[in-house]
Amino acid sequence: MYNRASFLGLALLFFTSYSLLPQNVIRETAIDLYRKGLKAQEEENFYLAIENYKSALQENPQYYDPMLGLARSYFALGEYKEVLRWINTAEKFNKNDIKLLILKGRVHTVEGQYGVAESFFKEVLSRQPNNLEANFGLAELHVSMGNLRMAEEQYRKILKIAPENRKALLSISLLYDAFGEEKQAEERILTALRLYGDNPQVHYLASRHYLYANNYTEAETRAKTALSLKENYLDAALLLSEIYLKKGHYEEVIPVIERIAREHNENPLIWYILGVANSKQNRIERSIDYFARALHLNSDDEISRITLEHLIIDELSLEDPVRKQYADYHFAQGSEYERRNLYLKALNEYRRGVALDPYSREGRLLYARIFYKLGYTAKYYSELKVLTDLGYNDREIREELEIFTSLLEDSVSDDWQINQFFLERPTFRFDVFYSIENLDLLHFMGGETLASYLIWELIRFENIEIEHPPENSFTFADSFGKARKRQSDYFIIFKAKESDRDFSCEASIYLSRTGALMEKISLYRTGNKRVADALYSLAEEIHKLLPLRGKIIKRRFEKGVIDLGTLDGVKVDDKLSIVRRGRISLKNNEIGLTFNESDLLGEFTVTRTDTLISEGNIEKKTFFDMINQRDAVVKVQPEKEERRPEMRSELQLFQNLLKIR
Predict the structure, then answer these.
(1) What confidence tens digit (pLDDT) does each residue in 315-363 have?
(2) 509-549 pLDDT tens trace
(3) What is the pTM of this model?
(4) Which of 177, 209, 238 is the C-terminal boundary of a domain?
(5) Domain assignment of residue 503, given as a range
(6) Are strands 517-526 and 593-594 parallel, antiparallel or unpaired?
């Protein structure tokens, strides 16, 4: 009786409890979860898609479709290692699925394994010649390889198969914009707008097109429409912000970005844009805070760092404690380079740190001592003297000064009683202009920042002088006219392109007198510190083009001193031509110097060097000795090597194409 009663009680309890449970706790099947994941993926909510696909696999670990969905979702997020992991898992269950082969081709394209990628696409097309995904993959492969006209042909082929295909229309419009063929691009954009006017991405890409064409009014309208169709559309909000920045409507940027920041506050670009908008309105402290937030989210965001540092250098008092915080970053970077014996890179980091915090005792000691390691003893001594001028006169510095005072007693500067660091040395005068197309940089309005940093890198060389800040080059004629009016020697038109994975830049150097193109240098960099490294190297390449030019500053019979030293690359036994003062001019067809044979007075042979001056023997070439102080000395340049262009622009285009759904 007891057992029967207990059983009935338990049964009653079970059924009562079950009836009280809410119906939505009934366990979802793997198919249900997969369908939810697919819906989220189609809505571009890839995080939710991944969550649902993984839940589906927990219910059924051998379910192929969620594996493919995971690979595709991770591809959309740019997590290519995860893509390959899920491809490898999915292959165990359906190795020959065409969708999987196409995705493998796309991943290998991103990884730069072009031959492997092409083989997958062609395998699919051999079975299904009109397969749109495989044809798109092949077009993207051509873009990634830089074969843009072949990509155009491939998109045309797709449009023959599917004339109203949205992705094809938008993709080929991006390509035509890259070619500068605005009418062709607009034709495709207008078709896409007519067919898919309710699609936010169509309006976003239309806005990009009109911004590229400098039609700010239409670009603004399309960006606003995209945001009205998709409220938290990050790309559209960023684009609208760029349009406002370009139009000078800085106050309108802030509400747009603040709204989108509620959903995307981990994106460094949001805080960078707020920093730019506030700096343009002279809200310096707030601007610095926003740039600092961008760096907190991504410490490798070089353009945010450079922009912030320019604000600190230009706007904050020399005693402001913020200076130390950002200078210490460069002192630490320099110390790491020094530990690896990369002394020139260490020098550049220390130089940047000292510019940020000129009163830093430790920073200035690092800066001074690296000159000694590089063999520039007099420069080291000069920097120690700067420390004493700043009030640092402790025992360590006094002892180092005493040691090196004695070491410099037999130097050229000491023997000839010349303060080599206060000489007026001949320089090449440059103007710098920047020509950055709309959408070339992820960091909007970054052209001025990059050009300013290039100037900062250039003026580290003793023979380069740049008087004016960089200016936007609206036209070549405008830049040429300004440079000629200022009577500079050369002017540079600087260009740059940036994606989230690479950076390329180009300097076209023109003769200011005639506007003739002298040289074009292009550089391409990937990896960490790619922006700083590219601009450092670009300045190096420009400096290498300049001929060695100095003058005689003192003479005693057959001995003399010139204002060129080891810092200029001068070595013992170097021979330089002595040319009559004022008779050297710039070449018209290349970077170099020219003079008449009748103005060649003699030859200077270096016998001793110092940091910025050298002693040598003077040998006259004429019957009468006509060589005087301030006559010029020049070195004949070796033949120029052929220079390979490195400027690349396809990666950002390729990444934009990948975003089109």
Answers:
(1) 999 999 999 999 999 999 999 999 999 999 999 999 999 999 999 999 9
(2) 999 999 999 999 999 999 889 999 999 999 999 999 999 99
(3) 0.83
(4) 238
(5) 428-525+535-546
(6) unpaired
User: Is residue 648 very low, low, confident or very high in pLDDT (cuts 50, 70, 90)?
Assistant: low
523 pairs with which residues across the strands?
A: 505
| Residue type at 419 in one-letter notation | N
Domains contained in the chain, number: 4
Q: What is the pLDDT of residue 639?
A: 43
Q: Are both 89 and 210 inside the same structural domain?
A: yes
Q: Nearest 5 degrees, angle CA 211-CA 217-CA 219?
A: 35
Residue pair 570/609 in contact (Cβ under 8 Å)? The answer is yes
Instruction: Identify whether residues 388 and 452 lie together within a single domain.
Output: no
CA pair distance 527, 520, nearest whole angstrom: 24
Q: How far apart are CA 610 and CA 154, in angstroms?
A: 63
Neighbours of 446 (CB within 10 A): 23
- Whether 594 and 476 map to the same domain: the answer is no
**CATH number of residue 112's parent domain:** 1.25.40.10
Determine the Cα–Cα distance for residues 168 and 372; give it in Å rounded to an integer: 61
138: exposed, middle or buried (Cβ count in 10 Å: 0-12, 13-18, 19+): buried
Q: Which of 90, 67, 81 is nearest to 110 (CA)?
A: 81
On whether the CB atoms of residues 612 and 378 are closer than 8 A, the answer is yes
Same domain as 234, residue 179: yes
- 88 in any annotated domain: yes
Question: What confidence score (pLDDT) does residue 146 get?
Answer: 87
Query: In terms of DSSP H, where are the helices of 340-394?
Result: 343-356, 361-373, 377-389
Pairing of strands 614-620, 559-562: antiparallel
Q: At what angle do helices 321-339 and 361-373 cross, to 10 degrees?
A: 30
Residue 303 and residue 188: Cα distance in Å, rounded?
34
b/e map 419-439, b = 16+ CB within 10 Å: ebeeeebbbbbbbbbbbbbbb
At 655 the pLDDT is 67
Distance (Å, rounded) from C-alpha 522 to C-alpha 643? 9
